[in-house]
Amino acid sequence: MTEPVDRPVGPYADQETPEFRSPGRYLWWLVTRQWRRVAAGALLGSSWMICLTLPPYLLSRAIDDGLRPGGRSALVGWVTALVGVGVLNAWLAIMRHRTMTGVRLDGAFRTVRVVVAQATGLGAALPRRATAGEIVTIGFGDVAMIADTLTVTGPGVGAVLSYVVVAALLLTVSPLLAVVVLLGVPLLAVLLGPLLGRLQGAESAYRDRQGSLAARFADIAGGLRVLNGIGGKDVYAERYRRGSQELQAEGYRVGAVTSWIQALGVGLPTLFLGAVTWLAARMAAQGDITVGELVAVYGYTAVLVVPVSFFIEGGYDISRGLVAARRVIHFLSLKPDSPGRKASSVPLDGPGSPSVLHDPESGVVVVPGTLTALVGARPSDSATVIDRLGGFVASAATWGTVRLDEIEPAQVRARILVADNEADLFAGTLRDVVSGSRDRDDEALRRAVHAAAAQDIVRGLPDGLGSTVDAQGRNLSGGQRQRVRLVRALLADPEILLAVEPTSAVDAHTEAAMASRLRTARSGRTTVVTSTSPLVLDRADTVYYLVDGSVAAVGTHRDLLDEHPGYRLLVSRGADDDDAVPVDDGDGPAPQEATS
Prior knowledge:
Shape: elongated
Number of strands: 12
Largest sheet: 6 strands, mixed
Number of helices: 21
Distance between the termini: 48 Å
């Protein structure tokens, strides 16, 4: 049994927990969340289908009673009743469709909401737990399938009731005809059962392959510039082409099964109608039933085509819905990176005032109000320390006297910000991209842009801060994206900023300006950066030199240069450390364009 994930924090914290122990249970959960609407849809659908059986009865009475000599008044009465029933059926059909549309939309919205809540709860673990293609497939395909499946709750119930009513009406005409109908419909279900099971298997394989191919396309689109640079575009294009052909073949398999189900869904009820009508006609010719009863039998059987078609369509929708629900509950069962808190422990509050961050595993100690730098031969070592200090991975890191994994996660996220170069940039205006969840005034934006040495980005775009930025900043260079991320981090103004390689994609002149302005902008606030740049390290209050992920030395940049050859070799760039790069701390000419 799959255990539920922790409740998400933020805007989805008050959302009910979905039932995802099995695909069927999840679909049932969607039904129970709107049981009143579903009940109304079932009532309207049942009334509509049962009323469909009335016209054949009224028509038979009009023939038997109204076509007799002197039966003009009876004919007018039955015809009037027939018209009235037709109007009632039209109204019931409209209301049924309107209600079931609400059921579909509610189911789709709830599924989207729980998927978004789960993505929010996974946080930084999302890219490691699910591919972009899988999430896109759920959002665009599986949600629609699940919504269509919920339609079964309305006309599906009505189909069962109308089937019983038709059988009862036929029983009043001829027990033989009633037996044929009662046995014929289950036979149709038996014939379609194996095809529905085969469809589930083919549909599952198709959806999985579709998600993988969508993820590959997203990777190619995101890294197209890099692939062009290394000459790998054709290789990946060929891989995508082969995957697309395999998906096409899988789609043909699904289409073949689906076409048989849809063909039988139309053909079998028609054959069934013909068989019952032929039997009733023979009985009428032999005098066992009247002409009016023959017309009624034909009408009843013709009406029965509707619920039988719903049976077949409902089975098809349920089969596809279970496949889609299985993908959704797989995503909902993914676990976020747990910082190690025991399920029974009560989250604690963070320190009431700025306090020391300590990572015992590496030996790094971050003093409040200082600019601390981490240097390592492997950038991943420094990034791992940042993840521990930010509470992204399980560790014994402490904040003040309290372990990070014992503090309420919402407080950690609100006060400690980890800014890395892989952070998403959402599509929108540059102002919206850097402002985050709050509106920022022009002065705050100007200060953050200046601190990140990003004036040239704003000036170079056609509408400045109002210019559109593509998703992931694809219309910006690598250095520009890096500085936009830094602007966003500075505007967030966290109590503790942990920045991973904030200047790695810019030239030396821009890097020097960023280092100087970052220190000024974060004066009195706690800031930790990872870098091997002498221009950044020289601005730090404390530098930790990491070897194999542990502190090998600590001191100022100048002290470490003098005392540790390994550090000197690591940060050396082939120039004397005394050769300073001019830094523009004013509002004069913008730094040079960053490299991509």
